[in-house]
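Researcher: Structure for this, please.
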Amino acid sequence: MSTQKFFDIKQLITVVYAQLQQTIKTNHGRLMLLGSVVGLVYLPVWVGYLFPRALKGKIGWFLVLSMLLIAAWKLWQRRQVFSTLKASEEDRALGYLLIVVGIVVFPFCRFAMWPQALLWLLIIIGMACSTWGLKVFNKFMLPTFFIGLTVYPRIGIISRGLWDFFVPDQGLEKVMAWAGTQSMQWIGFPATQQGIFITFPEGAVEVGWGCNGLDMAITIAAAGLFMGLLYKQDRRQMVLLIIAAAIIAMIANVPRLMLVTIAHVYWGPEWFKFWHGFWGGQIFSGVLFTAYYYIVEALMKSQSRQMSG
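Model: Predicted structure, token format:
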């Protein structure tokens, strides 16, 4: 009985090589290939930022990957639309200009992540514009928005800049310090608040930016958007899912803050590192995501029964 290989590496190489040969036959293909090379050069920088932070228990990587998955899913759902789009001469010229500028300037902007991300985004826009025209961005607004956000993976920096612009300095940190202090007093701990510090007779803990719960709220809100799309909810329901996700994450951040504070003051540095580091972050994120998922699923089932009744 003959057997077939599930994955033939030689066949894959042959297909890729044939595709490359076909691509370089046209000026458009050659320019797309050069633009893609810039993306491959930027990719290790992009991954090199997200991977270490994932190991430290940060959750920004989940937000970035979730947005990319949603974008890819929406693009795949409507992939037939691409065959109906064709770039005009003006759109193609504009796209080529953006690609060339990005390719030429990129080697001189390797000193930081943000200029590389900006130029790669410029190239992506140019590639889409020169292939399908400017109409493609109107046809795929949600994927365009998500891809644009994830090109620069430091979502926390973007959210912090916007937050600081609209909210008083350390406003959320003070609220979380107050909520954590009140909660610990309620269960019998001698905690007092001093600005952004939760103080005990034995020591104090600072509620910094990374502990104010905003990053988790944004991530869970993105999960709410994903579930809204998954359950095919209308805009109103999707907004409610996102708002509920952010509120749940903010409320859940208080017991997490209490646990980290107690670990630091009473249990010693090793327990503090555990709950403040990778494993503690993953445990907390896993519990929160699981709870939110089952809450949303229960709400969807209840809504479905009401509609059928």
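Researcher: Any notable elements?
Model: The mean pLDDT is 85. Strands lie at 192-194, 197-200, 203-206.
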